[in-house]
Structure formats: structure tokens, C-alpha cells
Amino acid sequence: MRSDSKNEWKYEESHTALKPRRLRATFEMRELVAETRVDVAQLVMPIFVREGRNVKEKIDEMPGIFRYSPDGELDKEIQEISDLGINAVLLFGLPTKKDLLGSEAYNPSGVVQQAIRRIKDTKPEIVVISDVCMCGYTEHGHCGILGQGGTVENEKTISYLGKIALSQASAGADIVAPSAMMDDQVLAIRRALDSGGFDRTAIMSYSSKFASGFYGPFRVAAGSAPSFGDRKSYQMDPRNAREAIRETQIDVEQGADMIMVKPALAYLDVLSAVRQRFPLPLAAYNVSGEYSMIKAASINGWIDEARVVDEVLHSIRRAGADIIISYFSKDYSRRRNSSKG
């Protein structure tokens, strides 16, 4: 493999340069040349809050994750999160009462609103993101107002999503995160917030939320499974990637401050495509099914959990996410802090 041409590679003379392993020789060298890093400050910890007092309730389908009442139990969880260096949480509520309009979702004294105020009173520096949806608050478990034939009526629903977002912003939420996948939900929420005097409240839109089988453990944890049918008529078809770009473009044009791809692992290609197209802060949701699969495999001794979690979070970051919402946030942060110590 030799040539006299000045422009061709001369292997015999240059082969000593072809040694990529030189940069993998030690831990310190690998750290020096690492292309992708997951910083604890980029992580968001999801939290389930339920009505009651002194509640810390384990979720069997999600080992290590709990439901908390918005009192001292939530205070302890927030303190631990803060001590680990995590700066943001995403709240999901479990009300005791449900109805056809999901009215507890916009109740000023609702469980999420209580939790927001509690966090802001005890740890005001924590960025509070509140999920804006109706599925956990309606009797039927769908993400909006039902019309004839059991279909979700888009226009009626987005007006309620605006009410929910406004109630959460009034309680002190820094970011509202609409996840219902209704057309024009971002526009409706932006108008509701601005007209209510909350023009500084940011919107993190679930712009590309797919109708995924990875949501199962979450639906048990949040009590949000639909009582009939599915959500394929409003969540995205897992087979479509170009549609994700179109959905995201609409949300950006309507005033989203941040955008999201959900789930993360089965949609890293979508995450990468969205990253290349849009300059807004991009979040990815490492969802409950992804979490529980790894936990189950770890409990059975089939994988090294810490190593797999490290790979998963870096893959999401490598694909383009600026923000990672993950139930592994505390575990990962704990290990990072321990390694530094």
C-alpha cells in the first residue's frame, strides 16, 4: 500500500499514526477526550404527588420510585434532589376525585398546585415544571374532553389546557409542559398565560410524543390509563419521523420555549433530526418503561445497572438532548457525586 503520489497515503511510513487506542489507555485519558458528557445540571427528576398526609408510597412497577404527599414527605424528597445538584423537577398529580372535565387539574387547591407552592416555599431555586394534561384527572383516562362516540374534542380541550396551565403558573410553576398532543395547545396556553399576566412562564412542549408501549408503568403510577380505547388518534404514530418535524415546527411557531421528544431510546433518530432542525432547548424523556426494563434486568442480575444507565443517558445526550428527564436522575447524580468525592 505505497504510492509515489504526494497526495496518496503511504501506509509503510505513516502506519504508526493509526493507533486510536492511544487515547483509550487510561481513565484520565478517556475523560480528557470524551466527546459527550451528561452534567447533573441537565437532568430533571419526575415526581408523583398524591393527596393525603405523610405519604411516601412505593410504586411496584417502578422500583425505587414513590408517590409523595405535598407536605413534609415532599420536602424531604426535594431536599435530597437539591443536595444531589439536580436543579429541576417535573410534577405529575394523582387526585382523589375525577370527573368528565378533569376539574381537579385546574383547581387552585389541587394536589399539583399544592406541591408547586410547597416547593417554592421551601426551595425556591428549584425549577418546577408542571405537566399540563387531563388524563390523570378524567374519569375515562383520556387527555381531553370527550364528544360523541368517545372522541376527544380538540377545541374544547385546548381551552381547558389553558386553564390548567394558568392555575399552575399562578401557583408558582416556572415551566408548564403540555403533553396532551392536541392541535394548537401551545398557542392556547401561551394566550392564557399572557392574558393572565404570566408572560414570563415558559412552555416546554411535548412536541413529538409518540403513542408508545413504553408508558405502561407510568400509567399505573399516575393512575392515568384510558378506560377504553387508546390514544393513537392524538399521539403520534411510532412509524413516522418526518411528522415529528412538522409537529415541532408548529409548536415553535406557536410560542414554545422548549421542545421535547418522548420516549427517548426508541426515537434517538427523531431526537437527532429535531436537534439538527431547531435551535431551541431540546428535552428528551427517558420514560417509565425504559426505566423499569433496566431495573428489572438489574434486579435479576442480568446487567450492570450503573453501566447501562450511563450508556443510556449519554446516548440521549449524544443524539442532541440539552435536557434529560429521567427517573434515573437521582441514581446517576449520586454516582457522579460519589466519584468526585
Keywords:
TIM Barrel, globular, 341 residues, alpha/beta, 8-stranded parallel β-barrel
Q: What's the SSE blueprint?
A:
Blueprint: H1 11-14, H2 27-33, E1 43-50, E2 56-58, E3 66-68, H3 72-83, E4 88-94, H4 111-122, E5 127-132, H5 154-171, E6 175-178, H6 185-195, E7 202-209, H7 216-222, H8 242-253, E8 258-262, H9 268-277, E9 282-286, H10 288-299, H11 305-319, E10 323-326, H12 329-340
Parallel strand pairs: 1-3, 1-4, 1-10, 4-5, 5-6, 6-7, 7-8, 8-9, 9-10
Antiparallel strand pairs: 2-3
Helix pairs in contact: 4-5, 5-6, 8-9
Treating each run of at least 4 consecutive H or I residues as one helix, how many helices? 12
Q: Kindly estimate the percentage of residues that lie in beta strands according to DSSP.
A: 15-25%
CATH architecture: Alpha-Beta Barrel
Spans of at least 5 consecutive residues with low confidence: none
Q: Structural class of the helix and strand makeup?
A: alpha/beta
CATH superfamily: Aldolase class I
* Helix and strand run: HHEEEHEHEHEHEHHEHEHHEH
Structure characterization notes:
The protein has 341 residues and is α/β, with parallel strands linked by helices. It has one domain (39-340): Alpha-Beta Barrel (TIM Barrel). It has twelve helices and ten strands. It has helices spanning 11-14, 27-33, 72-83, 111-122, 154-171, 185-195, 216-222, 242-253, 268-277, 288-299, 305-319, 329-340; strands at 43-50, 56-58, 66-68, 88-94, 127-132, 175-178, 202-209, 258-262, 282-286, 323-326. An eight-stranded parallel β-barrel has the order 1-4-5-6-7-8-9-10, surrounded by seven helices. Helix 9 (268-277) links the parallel strand 8 and strand 9 (282-286). Helix 8 crosses helix 9. It starts with 10 loop residues before the first helix and ends with a helix. The model has no long low-confidence stretch (mean pLDDT 92).
